[in-house]
């Protein structure tokens, strides 16, 4: 009998890590439990099966001690060590760690001093002003804590980052494609629209034998349990807790199936209204005449849109943000695509916190079809990332020029920086040093929680510096949990438009920053966009599609995206006489 599943073990190990942290235990012990939780989460197989094979210690980070604990949980459904810890550190304290800015030491303090052991009690205490008198606290930090608690309550329902869900979906899709008789297979829902986070995985398949596909789906390695099954759909829960829905119809209905389950819901509602005006009802199966005539089947999405008097609308635009109106008016944008991208303007090497040399990164970029890169290591005040002093930056210039020569005439290696915008708004390098660089990216990495006016002003200072060409990942958000700076985006975009400063869409799926709607706002004001991977290793160049998709969701065309320009045009643009400064 199965007593525990993967995600319950993940949950217990990560709670143990948090409880040890609150207790003030040794760091290596805390990290061991955290690593174990991450390993099981990434496992992709039922841990009960791995245990039955006697291979628990093959799992990364699982040695004999942790394997014995997993065995205990799998066979008894309990972990004595957890129960023992829980007697000392109430497990409800762990929930408080989800509040941004609230660490294990503080949690222990409010528990020890004020006897607070739940998030609700903490909220009440903060509202009543009982936290401000604790050592190291004050009225200001109390208000900040309360704001963070309220933010947590707002975003409580966990959505999964696109970068986590999409690879899982693609892997499942590859398995389903192998089932005999499968004609088409695609991801649907918010994943196909490439929204930055997703509620669940939607998979769509066209096949004659519906049952065979659904049987295979229910038996995939990463499926924990089947939550529901109907004639054309199966819903499962994955080992990592994510839901996944599969829908299967015959190939002649593929067009309506795709449109219906790509969504968004609001986009679909509009399409259905348009269909009704034409005397048709529309669902995933077909158009059905309201007067009772025979079904009209659509094997492609083009046919569905055509029947409604519309051109094909790319999935990335299907959010009911004016795309149907634009389509009717013949004004849909021609979206930028991956193959339009010629350069990457933001990446790191071993000079700061990257894994490869300048030349190796250039070669890796060339291998992916790019024609040029800008090397942008961190600047001096980001000590944690081994940021470059002016002296090291100048040494690096020589290496960049040597790499540029070594790559030959068909590939350019340019010298840049990802310069810190410091907490006080000043910049990390003086103007005369910035003037020596080909391209300057400026970014916020610290003090992101400053009040809106202050943090916006920091960014405006950077935008107005005539040497700053690009603002990297403008808000600094990290998906799923860190909200990023509370920027006045209208002011940032207005200043970027005025000075010609480029705003980045950072392609790393933990960032996707600018996000879609802000990219669209910027483009509408004439601001140029850079889509950059911010690669710290060669594999991260492959994150580009996430950035391109985000740009597409921002309605970006080739003209809006500086990475599509020949490198000479790019250099001319960044070296033009600036309006700022
Ligand atoms: P998510 O999963 O929250 O990230 O967002 P979606 O858009 O993937 O939504 P989901 O998974 O609930 O449903 C997938 C698509 O199926 C959705 O985009 C549109 C379609 N759909 C689902 N439920 C409804 C519904 O009640 N009405 C209509 N018109 N469409 C629906
Ligand atoms: Ca979905
Ligand atoms: Ca769904
Ligand atoms: Zn950065």
What is the helix content?
40-55%
Shape: globular
Mean pLDDT over all positions: 94
CATH domain class of the largest domain: Alpha Beta
Task: Tell me the number of helical segments per DSSP (H or I, 4 or more residues long).
Answer: 24
Decide which structural class fits the backbone: alpha/beta
> How far from one another are the termini?
70 Å
Structure description:
The protein is α/β, with parallel strands linked by helices and 581 residues long. It folds into 5 domains: 6-91, DNA polymerase, domain 1 (Orthogonal Bundle), CATH 1.10.150.110; 94-155, Orthogonal Bundle (DNA polymerase, domain 1); 160-248, Beta Polymerase, domain 2 (2-Layer Sandwich); 254-328, 2-Layer Sandwich (Beta Polymerase, domain 3), CATH 3.30.210; 338-574, Metal-dependent hydrolases (TIM Barrel), CATH 3.20.20. Helix content is 43%, strand content 13%. It has helices at 6-23, 27-41, 47-52, 64-76, 80-88, 92-96, 104-114, 119-127, 139-154, 162-177, 189-193, 210-218, 254-262, 265-277, 301-307, 323-328, 358-367, 390-406, 431-434, 452-464, 489-499, 516-524, 544-553, 567-574; strands spanning 160-161, 182-187, 197-198, 201-207, 223-229, 233-238, 243-249, 280-282, 287-289, 343-344, 372-375, 412-420, 439-443, 470-471, 502-506, 529-532. A 7-stranded parallel β-sheet has the order 10-11-12-13-14-15-16. A 5-stranded mixed β-sheet has the order 2-4-7-6-5, with helices on both faces. The chain has a two-stranded antiparallel sheet with strand order 1-3. Helix 17 (358-367) links the parallel strand 10 (343-344) and strand 11 (372-375). It binds 2'-deoxyguanosine-5'-triphosphate, calcium ion (2 copies) and zinc ion. Residues 189-190, 195, 198-200, 202, 260-261, 263-265, 268-269 line the site of 2'-deoxyguanosine-5'-triphosphate.
């Amino acid at each position: 009998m199965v007593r525990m599943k993967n995600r319950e073990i993940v949950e217990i190990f990560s709670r143990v890590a948090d409880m040890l942290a609150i207790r003030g235990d040794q760091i290596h012990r805390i990290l061991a439990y955290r690593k174990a939780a991450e390993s099981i989460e990434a496992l992709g197989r039922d841990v009960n099966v791995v245990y039955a094979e006697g291979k628990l210690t093959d799992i990364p980070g699982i040695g004999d001690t942790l394997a014995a604990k997993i065995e205990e949980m799998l066979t008894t459904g309990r972990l004595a060590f957890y129960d023992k810890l829980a007697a000392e550190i109430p497990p409800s304290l762990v929930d408080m760690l989800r509040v941004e800015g609230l660490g294990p030491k503080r949690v222990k303090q409010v528990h020890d001093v004020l006897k607070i052991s739940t998030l609700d009690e903490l909220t009440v205490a903060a509202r009543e002003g009982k936290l401000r008198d604790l050592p190291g606290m004050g009225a200001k930090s109390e208000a900040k804590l309360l704001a963070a608690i309220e933010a947590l309550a707002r975003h409580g329902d966990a959505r999964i980052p696109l970068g986590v869900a999409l690879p899982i979906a693609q892997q499942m899709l590859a398995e389903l494609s192998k089932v005999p008789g499968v004609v088409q297979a695609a991801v649907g829902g918010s994943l196909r629209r490439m929204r930055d986070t997703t509620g669940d995985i939607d998979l769509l398949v066209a096949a004659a034998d519906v049952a065979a596909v659904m049987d295979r789906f229910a038996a995939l390695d990463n499926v924990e349990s089947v939550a529901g099954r109907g004639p054309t759909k199966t819903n499962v829960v994955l080992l990592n807790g994510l839901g996944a829905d599969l829908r299967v119809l015959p190939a002649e209905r593929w067009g309506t199936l795709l449109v219906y389950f790509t969504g968004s819901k609001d986009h679909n509602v509009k399409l259905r209204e348009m269909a009704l005006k034409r005397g048709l009802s529309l669902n995933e199966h077909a158009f059905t005449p309201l007067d009772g005539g025979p079904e009209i089947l659509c094997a492609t999405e083009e046919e569905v849109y055509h029947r409604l008097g519309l051109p094909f609308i790319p999935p990335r635009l299907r959010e009911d943000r004016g795309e149907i109106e634009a389509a009717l008016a013949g004004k849909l944008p021609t979206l930028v695509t991956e193959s339009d991208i010629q350069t990457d303007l933001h990446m790191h090497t071993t000079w700061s916190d990257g894994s490869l040399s300048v030349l190796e990164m250039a070669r890796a970029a060339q291998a992916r079809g790019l024609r040029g890169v800008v090397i942008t290591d961190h600047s001096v005040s980001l000590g944690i990332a081994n940021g470059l002093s002016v002296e090291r930056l100048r040494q690096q210039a020589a290496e960049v020029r040597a790499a540029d020569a070594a790559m030959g005439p068909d590939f350019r290696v340019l010298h840049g920086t990802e310069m810190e915008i410091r907490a006080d708004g000043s910049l990390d390098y003086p103007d005369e040093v910035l003037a020596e660089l080909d391209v300057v990216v400026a970014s916020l990495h610290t003090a992101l929680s400053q009040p809106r006016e202050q943090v916006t002003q920091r960014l405006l200072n950077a935008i107005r510096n005539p040497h700053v060409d690009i603002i990297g990942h403008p808000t600094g958000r990290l998906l799923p949990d860190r909200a990023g700076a509370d920027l006045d985006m209208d002011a940032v975009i207005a200043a970027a438009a005025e000075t010609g400063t480029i705003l980045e869409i950072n392609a790393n799926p933990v960032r996707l920053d600018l996000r879609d709607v802000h990219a669209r706002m910027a483009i509408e004001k004439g601001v140029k966009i850079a889509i950059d991977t911010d690669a710290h290793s060669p594999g991260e160049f492959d994150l580009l599609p996430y950035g391109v998709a985000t740009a597409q969701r921002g309605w970006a065309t080739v003209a809006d995206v500086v990475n599509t320009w020949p490198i000479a045009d790019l250099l001319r643009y960044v070296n033009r006489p600036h309006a700022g400064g």
